[in-house]
UniProtKB/TrEMBL annotation, chain A:
<comment type="subunit">
    <text>Homodimer. Forms a membrane-associated complex with FtsX.</text>
</comment>
<dbReference type="GO" id="GO:0022857">
    <property type="term" value="F:transmembrane transporter activity"/>
</dbReference>
<keyword id="KW-0132">Cell division</keyword>
<keyword id="KW-0547">Nucleotide-binding</keyword>
<dbReference type="GO" id="GO:0051301">
    <property type="term" value="P:cell division"/>
</dbReference>
<dbReference type="GO" id="GO:0016887">
    <property type="term" value="F:ATP hydrolysis activity"/>
</dbReference>
<protein>
    <recommendedName>
        <fullName>Cell division ATP-binding protein FtsE</fullName>
    </recommendedName>
</protein>
<feature type="domain" description="ABC transporter">
    <location>
        <begin position="2"/>
        <end position="228"/>
    </location>
</feature>
<comment type="function">
    <text>Part of the ABC transporter FtsEX involved in cellular division.</text>
</comment>
UniProtKB/TrEMBL annotation, chain B:
<keyword id="KW-1003">Cell membrane</keyword>
<keyword id="KW-0997">Cell inner membrane</keyword>
<keyword id="KW-0132">Cell division</keyword>
<dbReference type="InterPro" id="IPR004513">
    <property type="entry name" value="FtsX"/>
</dbReference>
<feature type="domain" description="FtsX extracellular">
    <location>
        <begin position="59"/>
        <end position="152"/>
    </location>
</feature>
<dbReference type="Pfam" id="PF02687">
    <property type="entry name" value="FtsX"/>
</dbReference>
<protein>
    <recommendedName>
        <fullName>Cell division protein FtsX</fullName>
    </recommendedName>
</protein>
<dbReference type="Pfam" id="PF18075">
    <property type="entry name" value="FtsX_ECD"/>
</dbReference>
<keyword id="KW-0131">Cell cycle</keyword>
Amino acid sequence: MIQLYNVSKIYANGVKALNDINLHIRKGEFVFLVGPSGAGKSTLTKLICREELPSRGQVMINGRNVVRMKNREVPYLRRKIGMVFQDFRLIPGKTVFENVAFALEITGASTKEIKRVVPTVLRMVGLEKKADMLPAHLSGGEQQRTAVARAIVNNPVLILADEPTGNLDPETSWELMKLFLDINRRGTTILMATHAWDIVDAMKKRVVAMSHGLIVRDEESGGYGYES
Amino acid sequence: MSLNTLRYYFREAATSIVRNSWLSIASVGTIIISLLILGGSLLLVLNVRHITSTVESSLEITVFLADGLEQEHLDRLEEEIKFVPGVARVQFVTKEQALEELKESFGERADVLSGLEEDNPLPNSYRVKTREARMVPDAAQQLAELDGVEQVRYGQGVVEKLLALTHWVRIWGTVLLVVLGAAAVFLIATTIRMSVFARRREIGIMKMLGATNLFVRMPFMLEGMIIGLVGGLVAVLIINFGYLSLLNKVIITLPFIQLVDDPVTLYRVLGGMLGLGFGIGAAGSAISLHRFLRV
């Protein structure tokens, strides 16, 4: 599913974000990416969705070499990857329904298909009753569930989540985690960068720990436990 | 591209135009003004060219003769005229012919001249053509000195003045058009830049969701094109109705002036204006997107 071979990333300003990383993630896995700020977690996710190119090494997603991919192919890669961020990134002028529908509109979907698919996804995240509300009138948890609905509406093979619970209280965070688990059970691979140690410890999933641009630990059903 | 996508492009473009309404209006206004200048000077140049060609083809010297000359005198005069340097053709026109031609040039309003047949005030004349237009002034001067010639007349300076006018209209029209066209392109580029700026967050989200470059750019391209087309349309309407009413006025008040009224030529001018408006809009958008929206 995801393969990184000897990947290094040095930004134009000289910052060495990743240093000769090797990482393999199989289809259907649920992987936590942990480590202090500046360890290289965000850079890693940016390489996977090709927001950045590695300085050295190769990145394979779903059998495709992302580094050698042409620019015009990138949108089609991103449609296979659902992204969820700490700050939700919803469009404030659009309702919950429209925000989710937007991901479909971009792919050129018909109105009929949008009307068929969006309500199903909203029901899955438990927002069918708030479809016509604007993001500003939702709680943080509901906004993030909207973002998750948008991330999964195109049936992605991979979900990249960058601190999805960073702005949520513990209880809401847990509810969101249950949603991610649910999505994962349906076969979608999930890579989640997070600082929520309690969640990582309790979920007993694979944990990849990073520090100073290196992978310092990679264990199945591990815990957060790194010393910072 | 599905119907839904097309609808999306237009809806987003319309939203942007409304959101930046004052800039959109300024852009439309600049386009209107530059296209009006283009259309106006184009029509002026076309008309002057049309008029000069009719004037030039009839550029001849009319030699008015004194009344009551003998036929012998006339024959001698004709020989003398033929000897004047530059003269190519000589034609005798009787006073009756002259009146008939005058009536013809008045067309439907010829009745003004009725009753003149009895006491025709027009003199007999020779119509003299020179080999080239520039020989007219010298020839005319020599003709005036011949015995029996009362008066010599030709279109003194008219042609030269008209040609000089087109020359300046062409130069200044082009300069103004280039300056204002550039201003219009710049204003549209600014409008689009503001739209891009207002939507930069949304653009980021679109890219994250896997929108193609075309999808991200199309609404902004459309925005510029719509602004250009609206400006072009308004300018075309103004020129069209303005010119038609001018034509009507000229036909009534100055019947002897022949303006360009060929519909094909007019549609070409108007079509060119509309096309240029569209081009300005598209160019402004493209420049702005190239500079501010690298996706």
